[in-house]
């Protein structure tokens, strides 16, 4: 600790640690993050940033055991920072985040046998096994739970072990089976081409849980593809299509007797740094495109291109859920679909619910403590 | 109807109506939206866009009473479009949306007496009154319900009349009162400077409902400001600050024993067209800024600027909720706060919940049918 050196600069305090790490801490940043400004129980910031002048200076900064003590110029206040805390929070680096797990992209040659897998018993009772499973599930975006009880509530209980459920206009849970008077194609026996759910929502649900209670009908196999792999390949091989799909919002809409939920979304959604954030791909819920007529043909070319990729064996994997299995997937990354089934040959019933990405990541962080 | 004229162009069909409206319909758009491709009950698109060639042509297009009949070249198929439907959905225009209501900005001279107001009885029982109230509430982003029953469930019931409730890590509902061992500053008697709730969430909740069950303590007045007015004034008067606040994601974080929910957000969030979409402003939940040190001072200047605006009488209005009143506001537009109160002088208890923007808009559309 004694090998830390401090140096005042142009409104920054430079701290150099013994291991060679060095960082600049702007005065305002230091004052804003003074430990005395946070509520001891809620950890929330109570300090009022407008209470100090923009020109706040430092009278003195010195080492004090494991800490750095600052006396402010322009305000009657002293701050005391733990040197390790400063190192972990140095500007330009960002706090370490156990849930920051980059996706491992997969394509059509990926074997379903290689999917992350956990038993329902371990998921419910073993924190360490659950953490490992959640981390692997974030990597692939797709995973299986087996040994589920033949109980309509079992899928919900497993999902709630990760986070509270995200309600939608279809309810807190939903039943995927052939029904009379369906308000959604999932509730028919028709084939469902690969899609993301509820692209018509402002924020479509994150992780989807589909507990297979019965799959005895002929047909009804499950298909998946990694939408991020498709998008990255498109970015590389057809940048014009990628550009159109990531910059052009198109309408999505669901409407029935009780709801009319609409939203313009880009098919490919990037974050502020150009990194893939989520996909919105759902031909059933795609509205009537409202682009100007003269850009429509170029857009359709790009849209058909990504659609064809979602039908290609280069990307699609096929599996068949058995009763007692539950599939978990990131609905904003991994597209899901199913083959048509014949409801006269047997019963097929999946029960689903959603846990959003925020709660999923939160569980990883809390289990990582 | 006989005055409609059709003209084939470069892969577009031009339709001209008697009133002078004229529009180009690209061939692929027409085929993609052929009414035969939609499920009759779910209204969802079943047509497979990859089943036709990109070069699909038109053999003939002709008027047929109120409709336009197209015979396709390259596929054995006829389409029949209602001429009015085509006009309503013409490219570049977009479907009419009753929920597309531009905000009416307000500032510190806005009188709380001018807020949209409805009685709980009308909200619960009168569809027409509710629709008018929802439209006005979208304009101002802030409104009052009065005559609420002195019943802990009354606020929830009113909110559910609009849409299902958005659950968060604080529950489906939350109690705003002074509590021992708080995990949130709202649950103390401290002053709360103006903020938006849960800026640490991927999508912070939309409309907030706060039912005032008791407000008998000294202090505890409510403050509000229109964040969109502040942002638009900043865009005009300090474009550099606006640019930094709308382009620079900063971390927000809530953590307690059960959750650790983090998200980088820009303080000002714009849609693809540069229009204000939402604000994320919450100094309590703002994390430790992780920008590079050399951009930190410029960012702090911008951040302090908007913070000072949220404290200025140019923008802030003050009111005092009475028992039996409920305030509704768009949490991603209107910032809310309160004065400190003295819990020894009387009881203060608000009960809150959220309905997201998507469901709020959906209710406007359904009631507008």
From TrEMBL, chains A, B:
Gene3D superfamilies: 3.30.2020.30, Clavaminate synthase-like
Family label: Belongs to the gamma-BBH/TMLD family.
GO molecular function, one term: metal ion binding
Annotated protein name in UniProt: Putative taurine catabolism dioxygenase
Annotated ranges, domain TauD/TfdA-like: 117-354
Residues in Gamma-butyrobetaine hydroxylase-like N-terminal domain copies: 5-86
Any one Gene Ontology BP term: carnitine biosynthetic process
Keywords for this protein: Dioxygenase, Iron, Metal-binding, Oxidoreductase
SUPFAM superfamilies: Clavaminate synthase-like
EC numbers: 1.14.11.1
